[in-house]
Amino acid sequence: MLDSKISRRGFIKASAATTVLVSAGTASFQNWSSKYVKASGKTEIKEIASTCNGCSSKCGIIGHIKNGRLWKLTGHPDHPSSKGKLCARGHGYATLVYSKERLTQPLKRVGEGKFEPISWDQAYKEIADKLNTIIKENGPGVVSLTEDPRATGKFYSPRFIQALGSPNYYTHHVVCSNSRDAGFFHTLGVTATSADIGSSKYIMFIGRSYGDAIRPSSVQSLADAKEKGAKIVIVDPRLNNTGNFANEWLAIRPGTDLALVLAMSHVLIKQNLYDTEFIKNYSIGFEEYAKELENYTPEWAEKLTGISADTITRIATDMGKAKPKALIEQSWRGAFGCNYENSTETGRAVALFNAMLGNIQQQGGSIIGAKSHLGALDPAKYPSPKKPELKKAGQEEFPLAYEEQGVATIVAKNAMEGKMKAAIFHHANPALGYGNPKYMKKAFSKMDLIVTIDVQMSETALLSHYILPDVTYIERDEAIESLSGKTPGIALRQQMVEKVHPETKPIHQIYSELAKACGFSQYFNFSLDELNEAMLAPTGITYQQLRQKGTIMFPDMTVELGKMPELKTPSKKVEFSSEKFKEAGFSPIVKWGEPKVSPKEDSFRLITGKQAIHSHSQTANTPILMQITKDYDLERIWMNPVRAKDLGIKDGDLVEVKSSEAVSKVRVKVTERIHPEAIFVPSHYGITSPYQKTAVGVGFGYMEHVPFDFEARSGAGNIQEVIVKVRKVKG
Ligand SMILES: Nc1nc2c(c(=O)[nH]1)N[C@H]1C(S)=C(S)[C@@H](COP(=O)(O)OP(=O)(O)OC[C@H]3O[C@@H](n4cnc5c(=O)[nH]c(N)nc54)[C@H](O)[C@@H]3O)O[C@H]1N2
Ligand SMILES: Nc1nc2c(c(=O)[nH]1)N[C@H]1C(S)=C(S)[C@@H](COP(=O)(O)OP(=O)(O)OC[C@H]3O[C@@H](n4cnc5c(=O)[nH]c(N)nc54)[C@H](O)[C@@H]3O)O[C@H]1N2
Ligand code: SF4
Ligand SMILES: [Mo]
Question: Which residues form the 4Fe-4S Mo/W bis-MGD-type domain (predicted)?
Fold first, then answer.
């Protein structure tokens, strides 16, 4: 268990040492340069408002286009994610448009890792023929489409797969937030709340790092809260870079967050600090939960979490007193998005703790966001495909998973069992990031057709029969993005420069043309502009206005604080007890459950997380971002000095990391900022595609060590149920 003196000392040292990294992650350009060049004569500069594609925050950006080339980006002042600033990835990833390692033409696989260029017409014809044959022989339930949903994909991709008669549309959430989403959805009726950080008095982050998994406006809101005197506590086995803002770091034993939240809930009841009025008016099942909570004393939780009973009691009491301006931030991936067998239950417990504080729809609390009211295509003119009667693969096994997202890794499992024959991957790299790469490769080899639509030669593209080259986000218009939150709005991605490679095509065009080859062009008989016009119709905003502004917010539709909305749960209330869980064969109330595996004296749990300068696997091949990795040795794994000493390992040593699945070699960063039971591996490395020359061979991918698995409730990947041993090797 961690010595609190060590962690405190490490905390102070780390805060100073990491300031540089965090500020590098939120740097923003000033407008001075634009004015300077404008004043200097001949150069033509255009400014185009659009959105970033560096991560799922999709910040608003202003592209400054100099003589037809992308010159620089600045943050869109109105977009809720950017609020005028961009992060380092936002600036760096845009260089992709001019990368020499992009996909430039359709490719057909002719052998292991071997491809030949083909025409679009040939690609469409062969893909359509194969899809139609597979469906004719096996029915449409054996084809699937998976993506990281971005604006155009969100509309076109489900429509395309439905036109094939298949319900099998999946998103990346299975290795992101499926557990949290299921936990929240069945408790509050939304997969996530947002947090009114700037007005909160007491904020707890459980494995959510605004300082690493950066969204510029979130960093700003945290700085505002701090300035106003909010108390900020981070719960993380690792002192992450939010530490710069925090008053306190609780170095929890990984995988035990559920015990912490249960014990804090226990304290709220014991001290009579929960919101009885809120519970009476807006919830069901509280009595049952309160009875279960009697078991979960702070002393009980201390043994599991390593956080002292006094600390648990003090923090829960202070949060109870600060309510409703106190909250556990809803989190994302870090602690309970997709990591452990108990993650969905942690999600539920967090949502319920916030409900006990009565902070839902309160200033400084948890917000159930509002959505913009957008229009749809006229069905008389533009028919939609019929909703397939089949159930989405995976829904039977995981009925608690949020249906729209599904359980994407069921595609691999069913392929392994011969039940999934075809997969389309758009804007996704499942071969590297969704599950154990060896498992994925074997499963994918059993499918008759894999089509990948990407901008670079990803690990998934390498395993595909056909690769279709998308244009980059700098070169395309997209469908309108609806922004939900405290104040809803809309944003538009727009083409900033001419296509660099003539044989690349935007996704809406690819789907429409492939639909024609498949024989269902009637479902794609509209242009992207017609779709956008239809979406805009009810807003009273013209397409021209949106094109000019890029982001438009609807302040009139801001959620009314202090007013509880009707929830989308079966009871329309907060569910302390869930019939849905009972129907699925689980306890209707949250109970403590252990993670599946736990490290012993001589082993570690492998945990992972983001770094401010990279996104998943997609940015690793960006030279100016990878250079930062190399300059600061950021690909190293983190190990606590106590464990390092025992193993004879010094800072910078080369070690071998061994699990049931793989052996990797990497150098070590020895630091007090990590719990002794855990090894932390930054998540962005271990690219194996030889076509990504900048990225290949740097660090290792944590997924190599993750056994292919599903969390029983949400179907999430259980990606931190991983035990490793580490030993020093010569290097
Ligand atoms: N820089 C960057 N930012 C991003 C992204 C990116 O790729 N790069 N991706 C975006 C996306 S898709 C996502 S999902 C979010 C993720 O956003 P976050 O969830 O905030 O990010 P992570 O770094 O994955 O995890 C946060 C912290 O969880 C900690 N953690 C690990 N295990 C445990 C545990 O058992 N208990 C607790 N309490 N903490 C634990 C890690 O040490 C880490 O510091 O980031 C978004 N923003
Ligand atoms: N190893 C590893 N695995 C992870 C994570 C990680 O950080 N590391 N993060 C986890 C999390 S939180 C999430 S949300 C998921 C994310 O999982 P993915 O969505 O698969 O994210 P990436 O691994 O970045 O892969 C994105 C792919 O989209 C491609 N791409 C980028 N821009 C475009 C474009 O404009 N058009 C098209 N067609 N393709 C494009 C990239 O080249 C890349 O191949 O991964 C999870 N798994
Ligand atoms: S947080 Fe950074 S990478 Fe993500 S969308 Fe915003 S600027 Fe782009
Ligand atoms: Mo994610």
Answer: 45-101
Query: CA separation (Å) from 632 to 242, 537, 635, 636?
Result: 19, 50, 9, 10
Q: What is the CATH number of domain 604-728?
A: 2.40.40.20
- Give the residue among 96, 194, 85 at the shortest CA–CA distance from 456: 96
User: What pLDDT shows up at residue 42?
Assistant: 73
Would you state the pLDDT for residue 24? 42
Token pair for 557: 């539709």
pLDDT (0 to 100) of residue 243: 94
Helix (H) or strand (E) segment spanning residue 299: helix 298-305
The residues, any chain, with a CB within 8 Å of residue 187's CB and separated by 6 or more, are 347, 348, 351, 352, 355, 569, 574, 575, 578
Any ligand 3 atom below 6 A from CB of 59: yes
Degrees (nearest 5) of the Cα angle 680, 412, 164? 130
End-to-end CA distance of the chain: 31
The number of beta carbons lying within 10 Å of the beta carbon of residue 110 is 10
Q: Does 429 contact ligand 2 (Cβ within 6 A)?
A: yes
Nearest-atom number in ligand 2 for the CA of 473 is: 35
Bridge partners, residue 202, by sequence: 231, 326
Residue 173 Cα to ligand 4 midpoint, Å, equals: 7
> Strands across the sheet with 60-66, in order?
45-51, 60-66, 69-75
Name 579's Cβ contacts closer than 8 Å, sequence gap at least 6: 570, 588
Statement: the pTM of the whole predicted model exceeds 0.85 = yes
What six digits make up the tokens of 584?
Answer: 């699925």
Task: Kindly give the parts of the chain with pLDDT less than 70.
Answer: 1-41
Residue with tokens 């990797």: 664
Is the domain covering 194-367 a CATH 3.40.50.720 domain?
A: no
- For the CA of 611, the nearest ligand: 1
631: number of Cβ within 10 Å: 8
Rounded distance from Cα 55 to ligand 3 centre (Å): 5
In the CATH hierarchy, which top-level class contains the domain 4-98? Answer: mainly beta
Cβ burial of 72 (10 Å; 0-12, 13-18, 19+) is: middle
pLDDT of residue 20: 36
Q: Rounded distance, CA 321 to CA 332, Å?
A: 26
pLDDT of 11 reads 39
Give the tokens for residue 147.
């993506």
* Residue 2 tokens, joined: 């961690």
Ligand 3 atom index nearest CA of 82: 6
Cα–ligand 3 centroid distance for 381 (angstroms): 37
* Residue 237 amino acid letter: P
| Residue (of 511, 531, 509, 529) closest to 381 by Cα position | 531
DSSP state of 221: H
Domain ranges for the chain: 4-98, 124-174+373-555, 194-367, 604-728
Tens of pLDDT, residues 520-534: 999 999 999 999 999
Q: Look at domain 124-174+373-555 and name its CATH class.
A: alpha beta
Query: Would you say the CB of residue 612 lies under 6 angstroms from ligand 3?
Result: no
Q: Please indicate whether residue 57, judged by its CB atom, sits closer than 6 Å to ligand 3.
A: yes
Task: Answer whether 617 contacts ligand 2 (Cβ < 6 A).
Answer: yes
d(CA 161, CA 146): 10
- List the structure tokens of 231: 């108390």
